Amino acid sequence: MPLLYVENEKTFRRLQEEIMKTTDDQSLFAWADPDLQQNQLTGLLARQPKSFANLKNIHSMGIWGKGNVFGMTNRGIRVKFYIIPTGEDSRNFVASLDCSI
Question: For a surface tag, which of 5, 79, 82, 88 has the fewest beta carbons within 10 Å of its beta carbon?
């Protein structure tokens, strides 16, 4: 991976971390990376700006109130989501974000 790409990825991550300090809008976590392969795992933050390109109409709903805050800790991102099991296998869940398309 070229060094410039890695640095741009780190810079975009730092930008998202700074945004997290000023908002409780969970739409920050609503992204789709066109370069990810099916079933490829990734972190909670997007790797690149184009991950938000096709999601221009997402907005915060604010229905969960101000209690669902998130932020950075010394161990990573701390966040509370409502989670829904994906089936009978209790090891897989989907997180529900407080935002809408």
Answer: 88
pLDDT for the residue 1:
44
The whole domain housing 29 covers: 3-100
**Cβ proximity of 58 and 27 under 8 Å:** yes
Q: Of 76 and 67, which is predicted with more confidence?
A: 76
Measured distance CA(3)–CA(55) in Å, rounded: 28
For residue 55, which of 75, 84, 26 has the smallest C-alpha distance? Answer: 26
User: To 5 degrees, how large is the angle CA 56–CA 60–CA 63?
Assistant: 150
Q: How many domains does one find in the chain?
A: 1
Q: Is the pTM for the entire model greater than 0.85?
A: no
**Can you point out the beta strands (E) in the chain?**
59-60, 71-73, 76-78, 82-85, 93-96, 99-100
